[in-house]
Amino acid sequence: MGNKAKGLLALLGIGALAYWKYKNSTPEEKQAVKDKINTAKDNLNKWGNDVKNKANEVASQVQNKVDDAKTKAEDSLS
């Protein structure tokens, strides 16, 4: 059995154990798990938005530099 198959089998086992543990937990424990997932999702969305904003900022700076270079090139040709 290859490493990939062993890894997938281990992941499947961990998933089954987590599912079993969740199903047998109290409502308070289930709510705590849901809260952790929602917090992680919110953090991931915030991080994604931060990355997107930074990428847009960098793209805008690059576009400004290209426009400046174009203007200088046109001025030097005139």
TrEMBL record:
So which domain of life are we looking at?
Bacteria
Report residue spans for region: Disordered: 58-78
Give start-end positions of Basic and acidic residues composition bias. Answer: 65-78
- Give the protein name, as stated in the record: YtxH domain-containing protein
